[in-house]
């Protein structure tokens, strides 16, 4: 089978779609030693094509086999021709294929079998978390997904339910395929204890983290619920709240809370620094109002960090019985659960860490790739 995958979204480094695409594609190509398929990595970008080229180079250095088709096209243009006009088949750019896995940005027409991934329905459930243009683009894309796609991969049962209720997509078309912690986290865990300890100290110095800290990771936008987290953390002066993640969208970012003494806003943190940043935390706190999945929850658990997260949307699917859950709209509950972690005995802390490691071990990118490949093969076989 000749499979083309749109990897354009990796140019938005540090985002969830970047993590998903990089890890999935790498594992699919690794599996190809036993599953013989021909892969074409397709991508478009006007200003960041070098990111596509760099990723392809990394894969080639690992000895993985694939072809590329990268084009200097801006996202505004691809949105216009593929989401709005819905013209020009993808075959015009990459040749004949059997299956096309589209990104979350555009849905090109094609004669091939069509698969896409819907990570979440933020544009419907929390439109204030995205720029109005992004919301408009994704809604147009989802129109064609519903109309044309042969199979839709979703990150969680919660997202599947949202797609059924909001988009009216038949259950038979959807396949839940869970994600996993990033490869950089797995690589870090395999290092020696001395190496990991040294890296934690290096990251503390680099980001001037002199006090014990609790960590929150994610794009800074209203649905991440950081206002409430900051209010909760302000009542726990013995620790700092460290927030890692790019600026997102919304008035929340103008809030003076982000300039409080015990809040460290780091902005984007390079992937290589993240495992040590997690590992140095007293606990990881993720009180999000809505998520398609909870990769950062799994990353913290993989690194032996206790997790406090929301009992909302998909997050219990990621955290299982290993996380402490909060009502994300109740600051007293958030504060209480953080304090509960901070005051655990050594035995209690070890127990919750052990549960987290067991929960995280249920997920892997190899498993994600295998289940994705099963979707490809089922769709291709249903001719």
Automatic annotation (TrEMBL):
One of its GO terms (molecular function) is glycosyltransferase activity. Residues 16-178 form the Glycosyltransferase subfamily 4-like N-terminal domain. InterPro entries: Glyco_trans_1, Glyco_trans_4-like_N. One of its GO terms (biological process) is lipopolysaccharide biosynthetic process. Pfam families: Glyco_transf_4 (PF13439), Glycos_transf_1 (PF00534). Residues 209-355 form the Glycosyl transferase family domain. It comes from the Bacteria. Keywords: Transferase. This is Glycosyl transferase family 1 domain-containing protein. It comes from Candidatus Gottesmanbacteria bacterium RIFCSPHIGHO2_01_FULL_47_48.
């Amino acid at each position: 089978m000749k499979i083309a995958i749109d990897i354009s979204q990796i140019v938005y480094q540090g985002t969830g779609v970047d993590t998903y695409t990089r890890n999935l594609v790498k594992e699919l190509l690794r599996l190809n030693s036993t599953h013989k398929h021909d892969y074409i990595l397709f991508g478009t970008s006007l200003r960041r094509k070098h990111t596509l080229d760099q990723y392809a180079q990394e894969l080639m250095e690992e000895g993985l086999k694939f072809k590329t088709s990268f084009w200097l096209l801006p996202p505004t243009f691809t949105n216009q021709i593929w989401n709005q006009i819905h013209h020009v088949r993808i075959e015009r750019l990459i040749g004949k294929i059997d299956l096309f896995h589209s990104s979350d940005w555009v849905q090109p027409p094609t004669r091939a079998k069509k698969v896409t991934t819907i990570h979440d329905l933020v544009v419907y459930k929390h439109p204030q978390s995205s720029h109005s243009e992004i919301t408009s683009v994704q809604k147009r894309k989802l129109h064609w997904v519903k109309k044309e796609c042969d199979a839709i991969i979703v990150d969680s049962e919660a997202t599947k339910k949202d797609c059924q209720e909001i988009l009216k997509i038949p259950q038979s078309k959807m396949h839940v395929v869970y994600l996993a912690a990033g490869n950089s986290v797995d690589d870090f865990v395999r290092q020696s204890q001395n190496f990991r300890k040294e890296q934690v100290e290096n990251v503390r110095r680099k980001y001037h983290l002199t006090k014990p800290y609790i960590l929150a990771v994610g794009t800074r936008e209203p649905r991440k619920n950081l206002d409430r987290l900051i209010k909760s953390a302000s009542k726990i002066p013995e620790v700092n709240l460290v927030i890692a993640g790019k600026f997102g969208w919304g008035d929340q970012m103008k809030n003076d809370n982000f300039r409080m003494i015990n809040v460290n806003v780091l902005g984007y943190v390079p992937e290589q620094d993240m495992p040590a940043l997690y590992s140095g935390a007293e606990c990881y706190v993720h009180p999000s109002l809505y998520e398609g999945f909870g990769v950062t929850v799994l990353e913290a658990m993989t690194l032996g960090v206790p997790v406090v997260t929301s009992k909302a949307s998909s997050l219990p699917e990621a955290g299982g019985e290993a996380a402490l859950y909060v009502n994300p709209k109740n600051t007293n509950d958030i504060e209480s659960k953080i304090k509960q972690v901070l005051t655990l005995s050594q035995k209690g802390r070890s127990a919750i860490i052990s549960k987290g490691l067991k929960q995280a071990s249920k997920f892997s990118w190899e498993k994600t790739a295998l289940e994705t490949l099963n979707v490809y093969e089922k769709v291709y076989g249903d001719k």
